[in-house]
């Protein structure tokens, strides 16, 4: 408390006075502020009115009088399953119990680089250009960092800081991404856990989660005394596996957690899809995987939740820092993952598939205006999270946002009060090489409340359709069942439309689907 809190309180008094002055000036000159009309001519528009960006997305032109824009701190982890929150008690207590849990949150492109590019831009890969981790249409080389949530919030008056894992292959460029006041990405030994290097620093030994947290704390401590709100994106490596000299393995836990949770049973063991007995109905090569080794699954699972224990500490320490600086009540905290992960379901270990355990991610939000102890079962995506941050910051996005703000749904304790899309695009990219005529997609599909559907764009007859109402574990592919023919045709139509969408066209309401026949 003491001097730091006094500075924060003084800052808030000054901000309140400034808001009143600006509101008065806005009222005097509102009629004279020009904006572009539909034909490109300059027309007058009220300064305080909602502006519609070139995206067609409504955004507030200025901060509404009396509303203090919150700080935003995002914890992004790597490859975490939604059910692994069970082993993060601090995160559950400080965020879930004090905020809102999105129980059906999704990563619509469940692979590291495309997911992170989507979060930074609020766009699907067909619009931001990042379809894979590497190759012709993947990695940092395919990403344009000139217009991101960082540049938009910085332009809106935020202090901005990034620390941790950036887009795959960023380290080959070494460039300083625009929009970040402090930019501290990992640039070497990224997947080693106990050795790492941040941009502008020498390689060092230690534990990477602790190092990311220490830099996150320093960013918050630097930004908090200022008069501007701040945005911090802390991208943690856990529970991603190791890759040392091309040799891959499970994540390395911090020494203090090396034997934690001994004997804990992996939740995938209790899923009927685990080591699925009959995969003959799975499309393409998905039905050709061998049987799963229980010991391998157990080892990987334990390493994952042990590595997440240090991230759990990082969340708790960040909350404590915000509280100490008097900023906690003015900060929206978000916890999520770039994608989910399969631990033996359908005989698979990994990501980059359109199955439930890979698409599903944890998503927790706590902060001013967020309902406490609430749940929301909409299909919220990482792209919606981007739109939400832009909304909270009253920022003007420089791109067409494919996601929608979650803020309007915070008016009810659960379920979300606002209208929401009924169909969500999901997809995975191909590892395209130069001269490859392929489309760049390996799978494209949609999710509705009831159905999961997808197909291979190179071979459209290779497809899947799961009716989760009667088959929640996605065991019975009904794509060729005559009873589901009309359902399949309509879901394929929606996939084609959304596969070419941009902006508001990515979030329509299509209406009811046909019922299965018989």
From TrEMBL:
<keyword id="KW-0325">Glycoprotein</keyword>
<dbReference type="InterPro" id="IPR024607">
    <property type="entry name" value="Sulfatase_CS"/>
</dbReference>
<keyword id="KW-0378">Hydrolase</keyword>
<feature type="region of interest" description="Disordered">
    <location>
        <begin position="264"/>
        <end position="292"/>
    </location>
</feature>
<dbReference type="InterPro" id="IPR017850">
    <property type="entry name" value="Alkaline_phosphatase_core_sf"/>
</dbReference>
<protein>
    <submittedName>
        <fullName>Arylsulfatase A-like enzyme</fullName>
    </submittedName>
</protein>
<keyword id="KW-0732">Signal</keyword>
<feature type="domain" description="Sulfatase N-terminal">
    <location>
        <begin position="70"/>
        <end position="394"/>
    </location>
</feature>
<dbReference type="GO" id="GO:0016787">
    <property type="term" value="F:hydrolase activity"/>
</dbReference>
<comment type="similarity">
    <text>Belongs to the sulfatase family.</text>
</comment>
<dbReference type="Pfam" id="PF00884">
    <property type="entry name" value="Sulfatase"/>
</dbReference>
<dbReference type="InterPro" id="IPR000917">
    <property type="entry name" value="Sulfatase_N"/>
</dbReference>
